[in-house]
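User: Design a sequence. Structure:
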């Protein structure tokens, strides 16, 4: 049994702002079957403490970066949890990173440095009778974990750092360095220093024994200047220890045959039941009826996700005979653009802003098409849910989207392997062309249904990927010597 502590700033169903939470929540069960005992360390936001039960104090932290804290052990959301309970840092409701003014909390560096510091202390024995062999840290919020481990007391502690999105780097002015509890030698290119500042993500990428990201294509892309966001040099230097491991999905939470959020559940054999969900979905979004190809989006409304391209091409989609529902929130300009599109095309375009987990299930279970036009996409989960729900994924050809969807080109259709459509990223013409191809295919009911059923049967579980994580942990802890976990 290998003991792994996963340090993650959000985990479904405790707290979620995006795909990171889905992975944080699903990974422990996924790796358990490969002999990995994973506990999850999360910050003690009110939403987390509210769901924590059987809680016990397992460590006192009299001076946790400006206030008192403690580590609680307990269960919540089906997870075996350790929680950093520190009111001065985490007793803030709502979004974990952003205050009521819509801006990042100004002390985010302190909050997540403290969180990362606690993870490393646990690795060094803070909690009695618990000594993880591997710390698995996720994204910039836990980026300092490998740095605290590297510059901490020498030990056999190993670290894995997973980058779920290279765009969020957690960079802060060098003046914070003296408060990080790191030795002076950590402020170099081999530690946390990044262009004269402190880079949390950079620190994780630099200091971890292994770096992983969430798809093989993204692992390759981030080593190029086009996608590397300034970190491609570093990633190239450590190419032999960077792995791309696809995310899987929680097959229980996302199961159309028993999903309580759907008016009508279904399987591949009863796919015609989706019709009832489509009608409910159309009604919910104020569409005139449920006729014709219904496109959908469930997403953060940002440039990364290509949502400006969607705004620019809605009129063409409607002109081609498509309808559209969008669930999401994000950049003001994009929200305004979608609101105005819904105004221009009443009954054909519906927009609901905000975050609604149940509604996201209804969209997957009722819409014909899930559109994901990202400019870059480390893995992407919405297209995986779409496969499982028989909602045709129409995706740009980048990152995890390219790795998980097989485009319905002539060869793939002939071979009977197509599961969706792909188009060139960052290109409005390619997007409109994809609308056209999708609608043509939709009208070929036999081929469309075959593709839906094939998608529903494709393997989007954690199986393979969990085995690869388990292999990485085992090779780090010396339990296996060969390393076929790499790409
Ligand atoms: P990212 O993590 O970059 O936002 P992913 O595709 O990896 O993108 O994961 C997004 C997750 O967030 C999915 O579970 C998706 O269903 C969910 N999601 C995004 N926006 C909303 C929303 N407005 N309401 C409900 N769920 C949403």
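Assistant: Done.
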């Amino acid at each position: 049994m290998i003991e792994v502590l996963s340090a993650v700033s959000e985990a479904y169903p405790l707290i979620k702002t995006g795909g990171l939470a889905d992975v944080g929540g699903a990974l422990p069960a996924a790796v358990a079957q490969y002999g990995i005992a994973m506990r999850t360390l999360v910050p003690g936001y009110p939403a987390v403490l509210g769901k924590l039960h059987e809680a016990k104090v397992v460590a006192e932290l009299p001076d946790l970066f400006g206030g008192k804290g403690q580590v609680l052990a307990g269960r919540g959301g089906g997870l075996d949890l350790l929680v950093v309970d520190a009111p001065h840092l985490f007793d803030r409701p709502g979004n974990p990173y952003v205050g009521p003014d819509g801006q990042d909390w100004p002390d985010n560096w302190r909050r997540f440095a403290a969180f990362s510091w606690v993870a490393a202390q646990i690795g060094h024995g803070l909690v009695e009778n618990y000594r993880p062999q591997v710390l698995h840290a996720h994204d910039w919020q836990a980026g300092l974990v490998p740095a605290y481990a590297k510059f901490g007391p020498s030990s056999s502690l190993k670290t894995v750092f997973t980058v779920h999105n290279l765009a969020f780097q957690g960079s802060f002015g060098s003046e914070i360095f003296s408060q990080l509890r790191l030795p002076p030698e950590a402020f170099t290119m081999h530690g946390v220093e990044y262009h004269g500042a402190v880079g949390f993500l950079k620190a994780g990428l630099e200091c971890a024994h292994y770096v992983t990201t969430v798809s093989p294509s993204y692992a390759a892309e981030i080593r190029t200047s086009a996608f590397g966001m300034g970190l491609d040099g570093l990633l190239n230097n450590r190419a032999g220890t960077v792995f791309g491991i696809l995310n899987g999905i929680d097959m229980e939470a996302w199961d159309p045959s028993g999903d309580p959020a759907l008016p009508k559940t279904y399987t591949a054999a009863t796919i015609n039941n989706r019709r009832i969900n489509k009608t409910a979905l159309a009604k919910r979004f104020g569409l005139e009826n449920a006729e014709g190809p219904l496109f959908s989006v469930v997403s953060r409304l940002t440039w990364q996700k290509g949502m400006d391209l969607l705004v620019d091409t809605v009129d063409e989609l409607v002109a081609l005979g498509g309808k559209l529902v969008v669930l999401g929130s994000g950049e003001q300009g994009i929200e305004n653009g979608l609101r105005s599109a819904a105004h221009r095309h009443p009954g054909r375009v519906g927009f609901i802003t905000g975050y609604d987990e149940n509604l996201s299930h209804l969209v997957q279970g009722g819409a014909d098409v899930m559109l994901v036009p990202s400019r870059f996409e480390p893995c992407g989960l919405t297209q995986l849910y779409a496969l499982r729900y028989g909602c045709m994924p129409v995706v740009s050809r980048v990152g995890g989207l390219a790795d998980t969807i097989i485009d319905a080109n002539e060869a793939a259709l002939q071979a009977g392997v197509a599961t969706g459509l792909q188009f060139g990223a960052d290109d409005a013409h390619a997007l409109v062309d994809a609308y056209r191809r999708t609608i043509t295919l939709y009208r070929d009911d036999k081929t469309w249904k075959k593709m839906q059923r094939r998608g529903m049967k494709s393997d989007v579980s954690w199986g393979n990927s969990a085995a690869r994580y388990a292999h990485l942990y085992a090779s780090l802890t010396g339990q296996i010597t060969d390393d076929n976990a790499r790409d």
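Residues 122 and 131 are 7 Å apart (CA to CA). The pocket of adenosine-5'-diphosphate is lined by residues 18-20, 22, 165, 298-300, 327-329, 355-357, 360, 379-382 (CB under 6 Å).
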